[in-house]
Amino acid sequence: MQKHDQDFIKRKNRTTVFEIIKNHSPLSRAEIARLTGMSPTTVSRIVAELDHLDFMHEIEQETTSVGRKAILLKVNPKSVLSVGVEIDKTAIRIGAVDLDGSVIGGKSIARNAEESSEATLGSIAAGINALIDDERLDRRRIVGIGVGLPGIIDHAGGKAVLSAQLGWKQADIAGLLKERTGLAAAVDNELKVKSLAEHMYGAAKGSKRSVLIGFGSGVGSSLIIDGDIYRGESNSAGEVGHTVVDPGGLRCDCGKKGCLQTYIAEAALIEQASRVKPVASLDELFQARRDGERWAADIVDRAMAFIAVTIGNVACMYNPDTVILTGKLVERYPEVRAFIAEKCMSEYVWEPLRGTFRIAYSAFEQDGVIIGSGLLAQGRFLDIASQIEQMEQN
Ligand SMILES: [Zn+2]
């Protein structure tokens, strides 16, 4: 056999064994041999290599027969890391993410709302280097960076095509981060990465078809089918905020009239409230409703009805098994959750679809984008054979 053929097989076998332990752990060497069809000798050799470099651990487990202990193998979740980044209008959040989706050393950096993409990416690069130092992370184990942000994202090219919230156009996020950190970066819309986190380790774990809907500064959604993010032709699938619900309605930021988000987005609600009485925040608007102010009740009640309408419409379009709700409007105000629990399924969802899906809330809330971005980077850049070779060389 040629040398490069042998190398190819060696790499392939290492990857196969690692993947099997990762996806089926804990399991024994004998089970790996059975599942892969490799000889016990080959399996033992590869397991020894992985163990030596700390990619997996042995654990002892009692078997059913009295007193016998089986030696099982389990991937070390901290042996492969990525960095997850969330860019918001006024803050950047960074954390290392392990194979189990746990966050290590999360930190928040203030961002000037008017800041250019270059300035923000400079802060991110510095933040990542500080995170690696502070947490004493082994750079060789970091496979890449994942970035989640609001806007239309060119996922394949690693660019923000347009982020109205951040004021960015055609920002080369992956290129700049690679230049400043030496790490490859995967970039996506914040709701898309959040839905990935929920699918892998959160509220939609085990789901075949889930939709995450975000009700925050805008309204958007992300669909996951059989584990993959559904992107559409230009990665814009799920932009429900700009579906028109009233052709004669209010003017939206996008220039159209009566977009869904003119009835639900935070800024739109505050603006509508301010026409009656100066209101600085959603908290004040909800407080006015609790105090029995009629105008506040009208605005909030209409927003809640449109949240329920959105859930019903999304169910009609995608027929999901799980709908996950996230964003300030549904996470911060118990009256919104109560309304959804009481009325959504029975009054707003088309009758044949009632009970065909469950409505859940984000399991991660604040950390969802960091975790999802980190997992996105692992999915894109993890190449365990190369990782092992890199570790062996050092
Ligand atoms: Zn619009």
Automatic annotation (TrEMBL):
Xref: InterPro entries: ATPase_NBD (IPR043129), ROK (IPR000600), WH-like_DNA-bd_sf (IPR036388), WH_DNA-bd_sf (IPR036390)
Q: Does the keyword Membrane apply?
A: no
Which SUPFAM superfamilies does this chain map to? Actin-like ATPase domain, Winged helix' DNA-binding domain
Q: Which domain of life is it from?
A: Bacteria
Recorded protein name is: Transcriptional regulator
**What is its biological role?**
Transcriptional repressor of xylose-utilizing enzymes.
Q: Which residues cross the membrane?
A: none
Task: Describe the family membership recorded for this protein in Swiss-Prot or TrEMBL.
Answer: Belongs to the ROK (NagC/XylR) family.
Pfam families in the record? HTH_24, ROK
Look up and give the organism this protein is from: Paenibacillus cookii
Q: Which keywords are on file for this protein? A: Carbohydrate metabolism, Xylose metabolism
